[in-house]
Amino acid sequence: MEFNLTDEQQMLYDMTTDFGRNEVAPIAQEMEKAHRIDPALIDKMAGLELFGVHVPEKFGGSGLGYTEISLVGMALARFDASTSVTFLAHASLLCHPLFRFGSDELCGRYGPKLAKGDLLGTYCLTEPGSGSDAMSIGISGGVKAKRDGDDYILNGEKIFATNGGLHLHNPGRKVLALVYARDMELWGDGKGKKTSDGITAFVVESDAKGFTVSKEEDKLGIVASSTAAITFEDCRVSKANVVGEPGQGGRIALATLEGGRIGIAAQATGIIMSCLDASRKYAAERQQFGQPISSFQRIQDKIVEMWGCAHTARLLVLEAAHKKDKGERVDKEASWAKLYASESAMRCATQAVQLHGGNGYIKDFPVERYFRDAKITEIYEGTSEIQRLVIANNVMREQ
Ligand SMILES: Cc1cc2nc3c(=O)[nH]c(=O)nc-3n(C[C@H](O)[C@H](O)[C@H](O)COP(=O)(O)OP(=O)(O)OC[C@H]3O[C@@H](n4cnc5c(N)ncnc54)[C@H](O)[C@@H]3O)c2cc1C
C-alpha cells in the first residue's frame, strides 16, 4: 500500500486545513451559539468547490474519491466537527450513492447544482421506529411509497437527517434528500419477503409539495449542524427520481453506510487532532509548581496518547479509503476505522478536558466542545455496538 498522498491530495488537504484554521476556527463558537453554520461559510466552501469533490467531472465536479472526501472531512473536523459533518453528509451520503447508482439523466439533472452547493445533500434513512435495524424502515410506521401512474406518493416521517434543514438557513440554496421508503408495490403484505428487498430510494428536493422540516434538533454536540425530522405528506415524486432500480434501496443504503463510516472515522480523527493541538499549546503555556505542566510525565502521557491515536486513526482511514477507491469491499476496514477513531476521539477529548483542568470545563476554551462533539462519532452511521457486529460477522466468515 502507498502511504504517501499524491501532490494533488496533499494540496487539497493543505488548502482545507488553511481554510479551517483561518475561516472556520475563528467562528466555530459563534456558530455553535447560533445553532447553525454561518451561511457565509457555506458560500466560501462552495467557492472553494468543496461540495463538488465527489461529483464526477462529466456532471460538473472534480470527480475525486473517498481518500479526498476523508482528507477534507478530517481537515475541517480539526477546526469544527459541525462544519465537517455538513460537508460529509453532502459528499458521502448523498453524492456517493446518487452518482454510483443513479441514472445518467438524474446525475445530469442534479450534478452541476450539487457541485456548486446550490443543492446540499441530506440522507433520510432513520425513522422513529428504525435506527440500528435500518432495513426495518416503513414497516410499522416510517415512510411508505405508493405507486400512482408514473409517480410515487410518499407518506411518513424521517428523523435525524443531517443537513435536513439547511435550506431554512441558507436562502437561495435547496436541500436534495435521498429518501429510503418501503415500496408498497413490491412489499405488499411482506409475507415471505426479505425486509431489504422492499425498499426503494428516491431523491426529493426540499421545495417539493408535501416535504416539511417538522423539527430541528437541539443537541449535545455538533450543535451548529442541522439535524432534522422531515415529514412527507402526500409528497409526489416522479419515478424518474428513483435512484437505481425499485427495490434496490436496501443495497444502496448499506453500500452508502460503508463509505459513510470512513467519513465519520475521518471526522473523529480530525477531532483527535484538535484535542492534540489545544492540549499541546495549553500544556506548554500553563505553569504549576514553577514549571510548565508539559514537564510532568502524566501530562506527557496524555499528549503521547493523542498523537498516537491521531496517527493510527489517520492510517486506518486512509487504508479503508484507498481500498474503497480501488473498488474493493471494505465493510470490515470501514467499521474498524470508525470504531477505533470514534472511541479514541472520545477518550482523547476526555483527556484534553482533564489536561486543561478547570479551564477544560468552561466555554472560553474549545476542548469542552471537542468533548461534546466527539460523542456523536460513536453513535451515527452505526453505533459502536453495530460496528463490532459488522466486524465480527466478517471475521467469522473468513475462517
Ligand atoms: C446528530 C445525529 C445525526 C444523524 N444523522 C443521520 C443522517 O444524516 N441520516 C440518517 O438516516 N440517520 C442519522 N442519524 C441516526 C443515527 O444513525 C442513529 O441514531 C444510529 O444509527 C442509532 O440508531 P438509534 O438512535 O435508533 O438507536 P437504537 O438502534 O435504538 O439503539 C439503542 C442502543 O441499542 C444498541 N443496539 C441496537 N441494536 C443492537 C444489537 N443488535 N446489538 C447490540 N446493541 C444494539 C445500540 O448500539 C444503542 O446503544 C443521526 C443521529 C444523530 C443523533
Describe what this molecule looks like in 3D.
The protein is of the alpha+beta class and 399 residues long. It has three domains: 7-116, Orthogonal Bundle (Butyryl-Coa Dehydrogenase, subunit A, domain 1), CATH 1.10.540.10; 120-245, Butyryl-CoA Dehydrogenase, subunit A, domain 2 (Beta Barrel); 251-397, Up-down Bundle (Butyryl-CoA Dehydrogenase, subunit A, domain 3). 51% of the residues lie in helices and 16% in strands. The strands form two sheets. Strands 1, 2, 3, 4, 5, 6, 7 and 8 form an eight-stranded mixed sheet that branches. A two-stranded antiparallel ribbon has the order 9-10. The chain is globular. The two termini are 24 Å apart. The mean pLDDT is 97. Bound molecules: flavin-adenine dinucleotide (FAD). Flavin-adenine dinucleotide binds at residues 89, 123-126, 131-132, 160-162, 219, 222, 227, 376, 379-383, 385-386, 389.
Helices and strands, with pairings:
Elements: H1 7-24, H2 28-34, H3 39-47, H4 66-77, H5 81-101, H6 104-116, E1 119-124, E2 144-148, E3 151-162, H7 166-169, E4 174-183, H8 184-187, E5 199-205, E6 211-216, E7 227-238, E8 242-243, H9 249-285, E9 287-288, E10 291-292, H10 297-325, H11 331-355, H12 367-376, H13 384-397
Parallel strand pairs: 1-4, 2-4
Antiparallel strand pairs: 2-3, 3-7, 4-5, 5-8, 6-7, 9-10
Helix pairs in contact: 1-4, 4-5, 4-9, 5-6, 5-9, 9-10, 9-11, 9-12, 10-11, 11-12, 11-13
The structure holds flavin-adenine dinucleotide (FAD).
